[in-house]
Write a structure and sequence with these properties.
Blueprint lengths: L4 E4 L3 E7 L2 E8 L1 H9 L5 E7 L5 H9 L2 E8 L5 E6 L8 E6 L19 E4 L4 H10 L8 E5 L2 H14 L5 E5 H8 L4 H10 L4 E5 L5 E5 L2 E5 L13 H16 L4 H19 L5 H4 L3 H15 L10
Parallel strand pairs: 1-4, 1-8, 2-6, 4-5, 8-9, 9-10, 10-11
Antiparallel strand pairs: 2-3, 6-7, 11-12, 12-13
Helix pairs in contact: 1-7, 3-4, 5-6, 7-8, 8-10
Bound molecules: adenosine monophosphate.
């Protein structure tokens, strides 16, 4: 059996308004976006909880994509609910309402047969839950990888708990505003350096439509976003970036600075599909052939050859 990437994160119902439309109580959540994205590269298993109001058929859809949902509990009560809106520049989400609901009392339990999985993604959710899942996993085997994502909501309320998860982390994925908030540094370079010093091996800073920066002891590296004519809803872009990033690294077998760069390019490509549809619509029917086609286009787009002037 191929090893799963175990992902813990929110499974949500989202009500989203952007300048281009709205969606009411659509399925979302950090683990849903990230597992859909990762599933193009590697088998994935979600650990999470849903309430009685969660559409049952959706889990079956995930299963059809090879996503294991044995670790998703269904509890009486309401599913995690998030209401957000974006203004005209659709860069930052404004959270209008966050109801943890069944996540409030959730006690995650990783099925025994998944505990030895090589890769773990602690997607955006309460860092206390992220830690519980981390502790249940067997120590990462060589070549294994743990990554973490978080957001302003948890930085405000549980910064210390996030800090405890950083030492030894393979990658931290965080957006530009959040890394400034977390470190108190305005310079992204200084902020990333501060986190590398805490023992994070790679810091990935997401900058929305301006792309992404990766920082490690090897140096730094930047990619633009894929230029989209019709970006309609950025919800889940960060989560899908992270899922594809993890998925590619897990499938490549080797974590090197080179594979990290390629993983960031796949993250960029997959998140561009997410942004082009409302909720999970941009991802749910996406085909691997479309991903590969856009990946090749993207590589062409960023390809840079220095023009040497010979003889002046
Ligand atoms: P992203 O746009 O990638 O940053 O993530 C959007 C997703 O994050 C939405 O589907 C929300 O349900 C989910 N989300 C919003 N707030 C939280 C929170 N406090 N904890 C976990 N997930 C959240």
């Amino acid at each position: 059996m191929k090893e799963h990437i175990v992902i813990v994160g929110s499974v949500a119902l989202d009500s989203i308004t952007t300048p281009f439309g709205k969606i009411n109580r659509g399925v979302g959540g950090s683990s849903v976006y990230s597992s859909l994205a990762a599933s193009f590269f590697s088998p994935v298993a979600i650990i999470g909880v849903v309430g009685a109001d969660f559409p049952g058929g959706f889990l079956a859809k995930l299963n059809k994509k090879g996503i294991n949902t044995d670790g998703i509990k269904r509890e009486p009560g309401k599913t995690f609910f998030w209401r957000g809106k974006y203004s005209w520049d659709i860069s930052t989400a404004i959270s209008l309402d966050t109801q943890l609901n069944v996540f409030e009392k959730f006690d995650p339990s990783v099925p025994e047969y998944l505990r030895a999985s090589k890769h773990l993604f602690l997607a955006n959710i309460d860092p206390v839950l992220q830690k519980k899942v981390l502790k249940q996993m067997k120590p990462r085997k060589s070549g294994g990888f743990t990554a973490l994502d978080t957001m302003n909501f948890w930085i405000e309320s549980k910064k210390k708990h996030i800090g405890a998860l950083l030492p030894g982390l393979g990658a931290l994925l965080i957006n530009e505003a959040e890394i400034r908030q977390y470190t108190g540094e305005h310079s992204i370079i200084k902020a990333a350096r501060q986190l590398l010093k805490k023992g994070v091996k790679t810091v990935v800073v997401k900058k929305g439509e301006y792309g992404v920066g990766c920082f490690s002891q090897k140096g730094m590296f930047f990619l633009p976003a894929y230029p989209l004519e019709d970006a309609v809803d950025p919800t889940g872009a960060g989560d899908s970036f992270a899922g594809a990033f993890m998925g590619y690294l897990a499938s490549s077998g080797k974590i090197t600075w080179k594979s990290i760069k390629k993983a960031a390019a796949y993250g960029t490509v997959i998140s561009s599909f997410t942004v082009s549809g409302f909720g999970v619509n941009g991802l749910i029917d996406l085909k691997k052939s479309d991903v590969d086609k856009r990946y090749r286009e993207f590589v062409e787009l960023v390809h840079f050859e220095e023009v040497r002037r010979i003889g002046g």
